[in-house]
Amino acid sequence: MLFNSYEFILAFLPITLAVFFFVISRYGHEPAIAWLVSASLIFYAWWSVTYLALIILSMVINYGMGKLLARHHSNGAVRQGKMLLTIGIAANLGALGYFKYANFFVSNFNIVAETSFQLETIILPLAISFFTFQQIAYLIDAHKGITSEFKFLHYALFVTFFPQLIAGPIVHHREMLPQFMSKKTLRFNADDLSVGIAIFSIGLFKKVVLADGIAVYASPIFDAAAQGETLTFFEAWGGALAYTLQLYFDFSGYSDMAIGAARMFGIKLPLNFHSPYKATSISEFWRRWHMTLSRFLRDYVYIPLGGNKKGHYRRYSNMMITMLLGGLWHGAGWTFVIWGGLHGIYLAVNHSWRKIQSTLNLTAGRAAPFYKIAAWGLTFFCVVIGWVFFRASDLSSAIAILEGMSGQNGVAIPNAIAIRTGSFQTLLNDLGMTFYLGGGSQFLFTYLWIIALLFIALFMPNTQEIMRHFSPAFNKHKSGVADALQLTKILEKRSIWQPTRTWGIFIAIISACGLLSLSSVSEFLYFQF
Amino acid sequence: MLLLLLITTAGFNYLVDPYGLFGTARISGFNEKKPTANTRVRVVKPYQVTRVQPHALIVGNSRPEMGLDPDHECWPVEKRPVYSLTTPGASVYMQMRQTQHALASTPAKLMIVGVDFLDFLVAPENHADPYQWPPAVREFEHRLSVTATGQDNDTYWRQSIRDYVTTVLSLDTLEDSLQTIAFQGNINASNQTEQGFNPARDYLDIIHSEGQAVLFRQKNDQVISTLLGKNWSIYHAGTRWSRDFEALKQLMETSKKHDAELILFINPYHAQYLESIRQTGKWPLFEQWKRELVKLTDGYSHDVIWDFSGYNAYTTEAEPVDKKPADVMNWFWEPAHYRKELGDLMLNRMLGNNCPKDTVKPEFGSLISVANIEQHLTLQRAAAQTYVANNPQVITKIQKRVSQKRMDVTSHDGIQ
Predict the structure, then answer these.
(1) Percent of chain B, pLDDT > 90?
(2) Largest CB tally within 10 Å, which of A5, A311, A355, B16?
(3) Which of chain B's residues have a Cβ under 8 Å away from the Cβ of A209?
(4) Residues A222, A231: Cα–Cα separation, whole Å
(5) Average pLDDT, chain B
(6) Which of A141-145, A188-192, A442-446, A500-504 shows the highest mean pLDDT?
């Protein structure tokens, strides 16, 4: 069941909420949790009954292992604990690897070894990338003794809780389980419900109006590249920028909907996005983009590898390994590996530059407007280049798009637009621009959408800034003046959500827009990962 | 509040009815023209035809949609209203399926069906299973009242409720409703009439700003790339079968089953289109297609086909060079699409009887059948030679485009 479907919004969510509130007031806490777990399993089974067994099995095994690990820890049986942990992680990664990477591995092995092994196409169980990570974190922490004793039902809800089940935010047991156990959070609360509805509505609007609206200008360009067509400058940039914005509004809209839906039950999920395109450096970008994945990679890959504690060389190589794995996590393909590698390089360059700056005592200038704008431009450019690899169906189409963006296939605009520039047309012609027939409105709307959505991404406050008086998420994002563009100052005061009539009308309008756009159903981009 | 907004939107969309789905009254200056309806004909027309309950149908792709007027004076009174069940880009199969639906759910007893050369071309590497009949059910078929084998379609009601609800409860529709109101003042706004006709006046806007020569160049290029794009044939290798011919046969069977009179015609093409067929080496295929058509109709009660695809004063009309608003051609929008003015002459010819005939030049439209096909093709070949001899400039122009496209095609192959 998609969040952006009639079934979810008009049936599943209201029914689940109503039953939940009824059960909790009549029968108490534990039965209500049991209801939430069953509702979440129904939610998952709606897509694929076949893999329902897989997620239940994974949950039971991991819970059992967690218990054992915690016991080993309290008994001081370090060696047994370590062994068990290794087995646990290997089993989780093994399952993920089989479902996600087996085909990729076999086909690459075939190329290298010139063999022709055949594997039946394995269908990726939905959400496996997400619930595998959450449970690995749980096992590691159980081994360290950080986890306390939990009931199975609570653990089951931590894994399956439907708002975050399919595509995150990747929640951590430390922030979820205490909430499930507390009678103060999990209950009916009018404030939580209205805050939840407001956040959910904003997310729905971002997904179905904004992301789906611009998607039609991104996909044809990437499809054309995959077909081997040559793309000119404006076409290629139009496609790359449209995708850049589509992905952001799609995934952050999804995350808002997850946070909003959870909040209706009184549960706060961790923040996943904080205006990433406002970042003025790559490291800040990663603190604002898919924040729960960055956090997981930092805590469970980068730091265990040694982080920045083992000298410069190790630091950079750790960064690189982390980003490559992060890339591969998104999918079994070389384009994702390149994307991850690219960001690894970006981060290394970013950190070296920081070091040069502090050695030369230049850090004071980092907050200067001119420096910030230049830094933003470079960061955004690098991110867009990365997304080309991320989106392209294969390496050669990514290269085709980049060739177009570099201008080496020429610069062309539609004839219909050239004619309307009047006497400038000859000037454009002298500058080497060519004119093609047809596609005038396509061109115009691509760039109008890009300008509009870029404005929203850069100038408007984000969901949690709008909701900031109501602690919208489990955590807050903190950053310095130099870290991001701050163009929202003027809008900030007026943009704080309050339970007033004006805001009620505003939320009603955007949710109406959202509901009215459900007729053309489209999946969330992150479901494939 | 939210409910109020949703109801208001739905009510407004229903009143404006931007796609003509509901048949809400068309009020001049408010919603008479439907400038955004052309994007939704695939959804709307199956419902519209059952609402209009026509006594005659026009069937085909975008050419008859823009060319043949359901309000033309020659339609016999007892055959009115006439509905144009035509869809841009519709395959022969889609046309056949829509005809099945219309004949099952309306009193229509006369059909004029336009066939198009390009619709019948099959590539050797075509679909996974080209011989399957009927083909796997496509999305558009859910909104047809009968299945390909003539049974009642179970999904029809569910689909129609879904289409009605999602059309009124939609932000896209709201946007199009507003656009509909805004564009009423524009005399060249694109439109779809209640009878499924597309007057195609939006071409005039392009012609006025960019000139008709641009339209010609663009369409010629498209046609040439399509023709050169694949190793086309009429039937699948080693057979005398293609899905499109099978669909046409089924269409004729359907009309027989419903006792509906069927008039088949080949669309007129501008001479430059014919020249593109000739220079890309597809002329023999074009002739073979006509031979197979007459073989197919042979044995049916109405065993003749109107062929308008020849050379005559209309189809050889010169293309304007200058881009002056006054320079608009009389008979064609571009090489592939004829204007209503030419369509009127075609209806004069085909509907006969109480129709003034002396307005049409006699060489426009010939009746072909197995009896006279070879003689007809010989005459056409000669006419082509005459055109080539008299229009050296056009010939060189097409030659250039063809060799340019050939280069594109081969260099593209090189990459792959």
Answers:
(1) 70
(2) B16
(3) 171
(4) 10
(5) 90
(6) A442-446
List, for residues A118-170, the tens digit of each pLDDT value: 666 667 777 888 888 889 888 888 888 877 667 888 889 988 999 998 887 88
CA distances from A140 to A84, A100, A144, A470, A481 (A): 10, 22, 6, 33, 36
Q: What percent of chain B has pLDDT over 70?
A: 95
Q: Which amino acid is at A19?
A: V
pLDDT at B345 over 70: yes
Q: Which residue in A419, A511, A516 is closest to B174 by CB distance?
A: A516
DSSP assignments along A90-141, one per residue: HHHHHHHIIIIIHHHHHHHHHHHHT-----PPPPPPTTHHHHHHHHHHHHHH
Q: Which two tokens stand for residue A134?
A: 């959450």
Side-chain half-sphere exposure of A400, counting CA atoms within 13 A:
21
Q: B412 to chain A: which residues are within 8 Å by CB?
A: 228
Q: To 5 degrees, how large is the angle CA B34–CA B347–CA B140?
A: 45
| Ranges of H-type helices in B26-91 | 41-52, 62-67
Runs of H (alpha helix) within B301-391: 340-351, 373-390
CA geometry: angle A510, A516, A521, nearest 5 deg? 115
Torsion of CA B36, B33, B45, B117, to 10 degrees: -80
Name the packing angle between helices B212-229 and B392-415 (round to 10°). 50
- Torsion angles phi and psi, residue A60, rounded to 5: -65, -50
Strands B261-266 and B110-115: parallel
SS3 A472: coil
Whether pLDDT at B14 is above 70: yes
Which residues are CB-contacts of B414 (< 8 A; sequence separation ≥ 6)?
Answer: none
DSSP 8-state symbol, A49: S
Annotate A82-103 with b (16+ C-beta within 10 A) or e (fewer): eebbeebbebbeebbeebbbeb
Structural contact between residues B153 and B147, judged by C-beta atoms closer than 8 angstroms? yes
**pLDDT value of position B20:** 94
Band (A465; pLDDT cuts 50, 70, 90): confident
- Integer-rounded Cα radius of gyration of chain A: 24
Cα B347 to chain centroid, rounded? 15
Q: Tell the residue number behind the tokens 């949710």, with chain if given.
A: A511
pLDDT above 70 (res A521): no
- Region A28-42: mean pLDDT is 92
Residue B224 backbone dihedrals phi, psi, to 5 degrees:
-65, -45
Partnered with residue B82 across adjacent β-strands are B56
Of A389, A141, A205, A382, which is closest to residue A284 (Cα–Cα)? A382
Contact between chains at B9 and A516 (C-beta distance less than 8 A): yes
Show Cβ contacts of residue B376 under 8 Å, excluding neighbours closer than 6 positions. Answer: B290, B307, B366, B368
B337 three-state secondary structure:
strand
Tens digit of each residue's pLDDT (9 = 90 or more) over B191-246: 999 999 999 988 988 888 888 888 898 899 999 999 998 889 998 877 888 889 99
With an 8 Å Cβ cutoff, is B367 touching chain A?
no
- Which among A209, A420, A511 has the least Cβ separation from residue B2? A511
Cβ within 8 Å, pair B209-A511: no
Amino acid at B112: I
Task: Name the DSSP class of A298.
Answer: I
Say what the alpha-carbon torsion angle A411, A416, A418, A423 is, to the nearest 10 degrees.
Answer: 170
Task: Give A521's DSSP letter.
Answer: -
Interface of B with A in 192-221 (CB under 8 A): 206, 209-210, 214, 217-218, 221
Chain A interface, mutation test: which of B1, B209, B222, most A Cβ atoms within 10 Å?
Answer: B1
Contact A516 B170 (CB under 8 A): yes
